[in-house]
Design brief:
It is a single chain. This protein is α+β, with helices and mostly antiparallel strands and 108 residues long. Among the domains are: 29-63, no CATH class; 65-101, no CATH class. Helix content is 29%, strand content 12%. It has three helices and five strands; from the N terminus they run E-E-H-H-H-E-E-E. The protein has helices at residues 30-41, 50-63, 67-71, and strands spanning 3-4, 7-8, 78-79, 84-87, 96-98. A hairpin with a 4-residue loop joins strand 3 and strand 4 (84-87). It is elongated and about 70 Å long.
Length: 108
Amino acid sequence: MNEHMGIDYPYLQSIDKLNERNKTFDVLEKDVIKRIRKYIREFPTVITYGAYYKCFLSLLADTGARIQEIMFIKKKNVNLDVKEIFLTQTKNKEDRISISVMLSESLQ
């Protein structure tokens, strides 16, 4: 018997349950992270758009934001004093603040 608040709902038995999502995330090993940071640090800024790419890669690594989110960051949405970036073009279409962003020294 499927009952809710004293009311019998026998048809609830016929409704399939939604699959539960068990999301797991792969974590990068420390040595891989170190190699990525070294690559970004040593990225040549003298090539065309080199400084732009270095900044872009650093933001991806430091914030964990998506590429699309980084592409649409506006200068007025960056507050280095409190290490916050206001992201306006997010995957779920909701603005959010990436707080306590751990920006590397090269970006500050």
